[in-house]
Design goal:
heterodimer, A: alpha/beta, Rossmann fold, 2 domains, 7-stranded mixed sheet, 5-stranded parallel sheet, 15 helices, 46% helix, B: two-stranded antiparallel sheet, 4 strands
Chain lengths: 397, 306
């Protein structure tokens, strides 16, 4: 309901923005620009909606900014779809978007389980898409579909970074709790693979359904095993539940999780218990990007209710990448796809975008820690300077 | 195994079992008095949780309430909303279909459950998202060696057990309980003896649904998070517990609830890597038990199964 209203309001804002842009253009020779539609698909409701709405707002901001450019050839319209982070819903909305011939390209999916389920659909309908948040490697590497691109990194980078970082911090024993979707299983695989060479030991692995509510049985087992770190391979709801139930059972271990838990929703849901949780994400903080401040200012000025969240900058970059391709090739899916395919050295908010032969952007992962109710870039945190101690370390001393 | 950890497992199992038992007792009450299965029961749990959430949130916004007072408001809201939805479902769906085949009531209430669920999802602002439930109980952790429980968990557990006991007393010691038992045994004779049938049925629905509302509040307090589809699985588990324990009896569903929770906990303890399959194992045990004891572990005394 609220989302609908917001969408309506956003649409109104878009119209108002377009009207303003038109007014400001009135002095220039007024040319009627064709409207080109781009789809945005992500979780707009459900436990992962904080990330989804942040991505939607960021993409919508990119569109508004682009429309305000006087030399743009087309007026762009963002059509948002809600995949609810569910593969079956995702395939439905993907089909809806892909079969709509007026939609030229898509900025698609945060949830890996949804993104992997929809690649065939985009290929079949020939809709070029740029994935803005899902990290499962197979989305790009598991097929050779020319339609699928990705601006964010994969969980291979994340798992490697997690294993290296945590062992370097002196943690030796680990318990993994991961959900049984492709996302959780993949995260578990890449973390475990990279942990062994680093000398870390996994004491137990708990595969759990993504909507499981009660973790007391698993966590009591964890308590018995006394690991240094509990590693989460799952999304925000799983992270929140495990984090708060760890407290209840008095488990002193360090909590670390993949980028799936790195959201405002995690900090809100887990409350003070979130403090000191470590996460790994393939984006750097906005302030580290050359245009980060400009993005934040524009975002604040646009007055969105939700934060851009961890993947907003990627959605923003994906939107710009697509619009620039359409500017070059015109509103033609095939031509846009070919231009996207050959992206090299494209200057985006999240840094240079270079697609490899599987149309996967090459990026490295970063470490973050939850500090005073925010996710803080590790090198900038009080934990890195030593003024604060990670909860897992404080307990072992 | 370390006795502290053993106690921890036991406590976890008891906690889950209490919640399952409270839900299962509701199923059993409805079946006992009217031989119907009310499948919206799980969603009434959700209604209870959201009512308590809304009431506590609203009161907190209007005035700063102390913990116990906010809790009382939440409790009244959960019980009230539960009872109200139970009476409405009973009045509008169950009583009119009294002479229809039982499967009609089952279907009608199943759909009523979907209506309740979707109403919450669409009617509550951002209802599709999980909501952090306020911590209304005193914080703090009790520790003894490797055993540690939150004070709030202990309160919830004790309250749950007290409620189960109170329900037993209502059924065995009060006028309403007497008429419930009378109608359950023989509806016509009960009416001849001056027991109002409709009032007894609605009373049963109010009682059972109040339990569901309470279970919703307890879940919210325990997990500190509620969402619109939390009742679906719980309803199925509660129903399974009631069937395996013996639909129509009071002690049967309680045993069923603890049994189910016990199996779930045991699976995770003994074989950690099968943790994802704990529901599969628990339901398989239920199927086996239903095969062995078709009328439930504790059969209804006046068995008139068709």
């Amino acid at each position: 309901m609220a989302t609908d209203q917001m969408l309506a309001r956003r649409k109104l804002l878009n119209v108002a923005g377009a009207a303003l842009a038109a007014l400001s253009l009135a002095t220039a020779p007024a040319l009627a620009r064709d409207t080109v539609k781009i789809a945005f698909i992500g979780p707009l409701t459900g436990g992962n909606s904080a990330t989804g709405l942040g991505g939607r707002n960021s993409a919508s901001l990119a569109v508004d900014l682009h429309n305000a450019k006087p030399d743009a050839k087309y007026t762009y319209e963002l059509v948002p779809f809600d995949d609810e982070c569910k593969p079956n819903v995702g395939v439905q909305v993907a089909t809806k978007a892909a079969s709509d011939k007026s939609i030229i390209a898509g900025i698609t999916h945060y949830c890996s389980a949804v993104a992997i389920a929809t690649v065939d659909t985009y290929n079949r309908f020939g809709l070029p898409v740029v994935v803005w948040g899902a990290v499962l490697p197979e989305i790009t590497y598991g097929n050779d579909y020319k339609e699928i691109h990705r601006v964010n990194g994969t969980m291979i980078n994340e798992g490697k970074m997690a294993a290296e970082f945590l062992t370097k911090q002196g943690f030796k024993t680990f318990v993994v709790i991961h959900d049984t979707t492709d996302y959780g299983k993949g995260q578990n695989k890449y973390f475990a693979e990279n942990l062994k060479p680093q000398g870390g030991e996994i004491l137990a692995t708990f595969p759990v359904p993504p909507d499981q509510q009660d973790f007391t049985a698993e966590l009591t087992k964890v308590k018995e095993l006394k690991p240094d770190v509990v590693f989460i391979g799952g999304l925000t709801p799983l992270g929140v539940r495990v984090r708060s139930q760890m407290d209840r059972l008095g488990i002193p271990a360090q909590l670390a999780g993949v980028s799936g838990i790195m959201s405002a929703g995690f900090i809100e849901g887990a409350g003070p218990a979130a403090e000191g949780t470590v996460s790994f994400h393939n984006g750097a903080p906005l302030t580290k990007y050359a245009d980060g401040k400009a993005f934040m200012d524009a975002y604040a000025k646009a007055g969105y209710r939700e934060d851009p969240d961890a993947y907003g900058p990627f959605a923003f970059s994906a939107a710009n990448l697509i619009m620039d391709a359409i500017e070059k090739a015109g509103p033609d899916r095939k031509k846009v796809r070919d231009i996207l395919n050959t992206t090299k050295g494209y200057k985006a908010l999240v840094g240079e975008i270079n697609f490899d032969d599987h149309r996967q952007n090459i990026v490295s992962a970063n470490v973050y820690v939850s500090q005073d109710g925010k996710w803080v870039y590790w090198p900038d945190s009080a934990y890195a300077t030593g003024t604060k101690k990670l909860p897992g370390k404080a307990a072992s001393n | 195994m370390d006795p502290g950890l053993l106690a921890q497992y036991l406590f976890n199992g008891l906690m889950l079992g209490t919640i399952y038992a409270i839900v299962a007792v509701g199923f059993s009450l409805f079946f006992g008095v009217l031989d119907v299965i009310k499948f919206s029961h799980g969603d009434v749990v959700t209604v209870g949780a959201f009512s308590a959430f809304g009431a506590a949130g609203l009161m907190a916004a209007l005035a700063t309430l102390s913990g116990p007072l906010a809790l009382a408001v939440g409790l009244i809201a959960a019980l009230g909303a539960g009872a109200l939805s139970g009476v409405i479902i009973g009045r509008l769906l169950v009583l009119p279909l009294k002479n229809a085949p039982g499967v009609n009531v089952l279907l009608a209430t199943l759909m009523a459950g979907t209506v309740l669920r979707e109403a919450i999802r669409l009617g509550v602002p951002n209802g599709g998202n999980p909501k952090p439930f306020p911590a209304l109980l005193p914080e703090g952790v009790l520790k003894a060696g490797s055993f540690s429980v939150g004070i709030d968990s202990v309160i919830i557990l004790l309250a749950g057990l007290a409620v189960v006991l109170a329900t037993h007393l209502v059924i065995t010691r009060t006028r309403l309980g007497l008429s419930i038992r009378a109608v359950a045994q023989d509806e016509e004779v009960a009416q001849l003896a001056g027991v109002s049938f409709n009032r007894t049925v609605l009373g049963t629905f109010a009682l059972g649904s109040m339990l569901a509302g309470l279970a919703g509040l307890m879940l919210g307090l325990y997990y500190r998070e509620i969402n619109f589809n939390m009742g679906v699985m719980l309803g199925i588990i509660g129903f399974a517990c009631a069937v395996v324990g013996g639909l129509g009896s009071l002690i049967g569903p309680i045993i069923g609830g603890f049994l189910f929770a016990g199996v779930q906990t045991l699976v995770t303890v003994v074989l950690p890597f099968t943790s994802a399959y704990k529901d599969v194992v628990a339901f398989a045990v239920i199927i086996a038990l239903i095969g062995l004891f078709p009328t439930g572990l504790i059969a209804e005394k006046s068995s008139e199964r068709v």
